[in-house]
Amino acid sequence: KYKELESQVSDSAAEIERMQKELDDGKGSMSSDEYLQKSYNLIAAKATLQFYKTQLANTRNTIDNAKQQVAAAQTAVNNGGTALQDAQKKVNEAPAALEEAEKQIQDAQIELDRKNEEYEQAKQDLADELEAAQQKLEDSEDKILNVEKPTWYVLDRETIPSYTAYKSDTDGMGSIGSVFPVIFFLVAALVSLTTMTRMVEEQRTQIGTLKALGYTKGAIAAKYVLYALLATAIGSVLGVLLGESTIPLLTVNTYKLVYIGLHNTVVKPDVFDALLASLLAIICTTGATLAACYRVLSSSPALLMRPEAPKAGKRILLEKVGFIWKHLNFAQKAACRNLFRYKKRLFMTIAG
C-alpha cells in the first residue's frame, strides 16, 4: 500500500508538471473557456497530489511506528521472556494498526471522490451562470442596437417651463392688481362720503348762517371740497412713494423663494398709473364730498340754522316675525331698528 501511494504521488507530480507546462505554453493561443477548463483541472490535480502526500506521510508514520514497536519488541525478547511476550503482542497489534491506517486512506479516498463530485457540480453551475450572463449581455446589446433615435426639442424663452410659470404668476398678480384698486377706490369713496356727511351735518348751522349772509353754494362747498382734495393729494403722494418703493420689492422677494435665479430685479416706477390712481382717488373723494354737501346746501338757511329733526321711526320687517321679535331684549330691538333706520351706515359697515 505504501509503495502504491508513492507511485500515485510520483505520477500526480509528473501530471501536474505536464499540465502546468501545457497551460503556460498555450496561454496565448487558448480560448477563455479552454484556459478556464485546464486551470480547473490543474487545481484539482494539485488537490489530489496534496491528498496523496498527506496519506503517504500518515502511512510512513504508521510504518515507522510499527518498526519502532518491532524493534522495541525485539529488545524485549533479548531482555527476557516477558518483554518478548509484550513485543510479540505489539507485533500482533501492528497489522491491526496498519489496517486502521489503510481504512483511513480508503475513507479519505471516498471523501476525495465526494469533493471531486462537488467540484464538478460547482464547475457545471458556474458554466451555466456564465452562459446565462452571456445570453443576458447579448440580449442587452440587441436592445441597445434596437433603441429608437431620440427626438430633440428646442425650446425658446416663451416655452421654458420656469419662464412660463413665472409669466403666469405675474399675469395673475396683474389681474389682482386690476381688481384691488377698484375695491380700494370704493372703500375710499364710502369713507369719504361717511366722513364728509358727518362733518357737513355737524356744521349745518354754520352752513345755514353762511347762506343767510349771502355766500353761494359753490363758495360754501369749496371749503369741504378743498379739505377732501388736500387729504386725497397728501395721501396719494405718500401712497405713490411707499407703494412704488416697497410693494414691488416685497412681491419680487416673495417670488425669489420659488424662482432661485431671480436676481437684480429692476422695478421701474410707473408714472402714468400713479397719476391715474391719484386722479381717480381725487374724483372719488371730491365726488363723495359734493354728494354729501348737495342735500344740505339744497335746504333753506332758516331750516339749516335749526337742529335737524331725527328721522321718524317706523316698523321694520323683523317686527312682523313675532316668534323672533318677542325673544329680543330692548337693546337688540333698538339695534335692529337703527340698522334699517340708517341705511347708509348699514351699507358702509357691510361693504367695509
Automatic annotation (TrEMBL):
Membrane-spanning residues: 179-200, 221-242, 274-297
Residue ranges occupied by any ABC3 transporter permease C-terminal domain in the UniProt entry: 179-301
Region listing for Disordered, in residue ranges: 1-32
Keyword Ubl conjugation: no
InterPro entries for this protein: ABC3_permease_C, Membrane_comp_ABC_pdt
Matching PANTHER family: INNER MEMBRANE PROTEIN, MEMBRANE COMPONENT OF PREDICTED ABC SUPERFAMILY METABOLITE UPTAKE TRANSPORTER
Name of the protein this chain belongs to: ABC superfamily ATP binding cassette transporter, membrane protein
Organism field: human gut metagenome
Taxonomic path: unclassified sequences, metagenomes, organismal metagenomes
